[in-house]
Amino acid sequence: MLTKRIVPCLDIKNGRTVKGVNFVNLIDAGDPVELAKEYATHGADELVFLDISATQEARKTTKDMVLKVAEQVNIPFTVGGGISSIEDVSILLKNGADKVSVNSSAVKRPQLINELSEKFGSQCIVVAIDAKQVNDKWKVHLAGGTIETELNLFDWAQEVEQRGAGEILFTSMDHDGTKNGFANEALARLSKMVNIPIIASGGAGSIQHFSDAFTKGKADAALAASVFHFGEIEIIQLKKELQKQNIPVRL
Amino acid sequence: MKVTIIDYGAGNIKSIQFAFNRLGVEAILTNNSEEIKSADRVIFPGVGEASSAMNMLKKSKLNLLIPELKQPVLGICLGMQLLCNFTEEGNTQGLGIFDVSVKRFSDALKVPQMGWNSITDLKSPLFKNSNEQDYMYLVHSYFAEVCNQTIAKTNYGLTYSSALQNKNFYGVQFHPEKSSTAGEQILRNFIEL
């Protein structure tokens, strides 16, 4: 049976992990490779690296980092942040990334999704969508939620699927950072509407939240950052608990 | 031990090279027919779309070379599918090593299947030190049906071949190079065949 995936997300700046990461047995918690290896041996199913570097120059460091991660880590990983061209994707995949995620660049030029999926295959193209509710409507936002667009989450999700996205990473800006649980209603609606896997993101605070994202939200995978980085939730413990609740996981 | 990974322009193959390196085995990427013929083990990878991958093979005449290989050959993902008779993806004629067709998953399922699923009914030295129900990482929209060359099965809406074998040819639908320690074990088994 296909299992539900648990996905830690690492923010990367200038090739280093940012946001506090509190891992006791790491010599260098800022080293993405060390962290990735740690997660891989402790039950993570997949990893997402989000490059939040501000400049093209800094993003070059990320491409080198990707190569090092690919050399040393034996589970799949996705790289996102600042990807806007076939060349960007080509380098990342050549350096060993399994998937790339596009966000703003796809909103600005939707045809990019078609070009990428035709060139590299849908399986490696993730479209990340950040959205929040504005007057009861789920609006797609850009630049970390600061710029509102006219796009409706559900319309956009269907469009990216048609254009060849292989997976959707949906972050609810309303839930992100709250630790009050995922946006399960919107997730369930998305999951019903599109026929590609959905990764839930934003709001993880407890084990039950993950369970709800899979059962109520019908998500295929759940992503979180701080609850894992600070050791508030251990992935193995999380998975054991999910298994007790009859949610299929890889243990 | 010389492992050769056939490089015909299809997808992310460095991960396979890295996985062998982690096992302490050197693996080279090449499309040179002499290098491929003289290798102790050959990996036939593939990511992307079937008909364009087959065209790339034909361009370098690898479609003629591969079926003649005598050493253990391992097709991975699309590589495995191209070793089958036929695939519905782009209505592509395969190399016919595995006597089975490749079909698309039903739209009642999420397609592609993406993530970790278990392999069962293992019957081949390829799984010598593997366990029933081991989890493997899979990303695919098309599957090979079950046939008498099936050496591992997986269930996604239906039961299909997650691995095939015909003589010295092996094929796995999953990505052993991305399947944690369980995947590494399969690569090790392949080296030790």
TrEMBL record, chain A:
It comes from the Bacteria. PANTHER family: IMIDAZOLE GLYCEROL PHOSPHATE SYNTHASE HISHF, IMIDAZOLE GLYCEROL PHOSPHATE SYNTHASE SUBUNIT HISF/H IGP SYNTHASE SUBUNIT HISF/H. InterPro entries: Aldolase_TIM (IPR013785), His_biosynth (IPR006062), HisF (IPR004651), IGPS_HisA/HisF (IPR050064), RibuloseP-bd_barrel (IPR011060). Heterodimer of HisH and HisF. IGPS catalyzes the conversion of PRFAR and glutamine to IGP, AICAR and glutamate. The HisF subunit catalyzes the cyclization activity that produces IGP and AICAR from PRFAR using the ammonia provided by the HisH subunit. Its EC number is 4.3.2.10. This is Imidazole glycerol phosphate synthase subunit HisF. It catalyses: 5-[(5-phospho-1-deoxy-D-ribulos-1-ylimino)methylamino]-1-(5-phospho-beta-D-ribosyl)imidazole-4-carboxamide + L-glutamine = D-erythro-1-(imidazol-4-yl)glycerol 3-phosphate + 5-amino-1-(5-phospho-beta-D-ribosyl)imidazole-4-carboxamide + L-glutamate + H(+). Keywords: Amino-acid biosynthesis, Cytoplasm, Histidine biosynthesis, Lyase. Transmembrane segments: none annotated. The keyword Lyase applies. The active site is at D11, D130. Its main location: cytoplasm. Belongs to the HisA/HisF family. The keyword Oxidoreductase does not apply. CDD domains: HisF. Pathway: Amino-acid biosynthesis; L-histidine biosynthesis; L-histidine from 5-phospho-alpha-D-ribose 1-diphosphate: step 5/9. The gene is hisF. It is found in: Cytoplasm. It comes from Meridianimaribacter flavus.
UniProtKB/TrEMBL annotation, chain B:
The active site is at C77 (nucleophile), H175, E177. InterPro entries: Class_I_gatase-like (IPR029062), GATASE (IPR017926), Imidazole-glycPsynth_HisH (IPR010139). It comes from the Bacteria. It is found in: Cytoplasm. Residues 5-191 form the Glutamine amidotransferase domain. The keyword Hydrolase applies. IGPS catalyzes the conversion of PRFAR and glutamine to IGP, AICAR and glutamate. The HisH subunit catalyzes the hydrolysis of glutamine to glutamate and ammonia as part of the synthesis of IGP and AICAR. The resulting ammonia molecule is channeled to the active site of HisF. It catalyses: 5-[(5-phospho-1-deoxy-D-ribulos-1-ylimino)methylamino]-1-(5-phospho-beta-D-ribosyl)imidazole-4-carboxamide + L-glutamine = D-erythro-1-(imidazol-4-yl)glycerol 3-phosphate + 5-amino-1-(5-phospho-beta-D-ribosyl)imidazole-4-carboxamide + L-glutamate + H(+); L-glutamine + H2O = L-glutamate + NH4(+). The gene is hisH. It comes from Meridianimaribacter flavus. Pathway: Amino-acid biosynthesis; L-histidine biosynthesis; L-histidine from 5-phospho-alpha-D-ribose 1-diphosphate: step 5/9. Signal peptide: none annotated. Its EC number is 4.3.2.10, 3.5.1.2. Heterodimer of HisH and HisF. Keywords: Amino-acid biosynthesis, Cytoplasm, Glutamine amidotransferase, Histidine biosynthesis, Hydrolase, Lyase. CDD domains: GATase1_IGP_Synthase. The keyword Lyase applies. It holds the Pfam family GATase. This is Imidazole glycerol phosphate synthase subunit HisH.
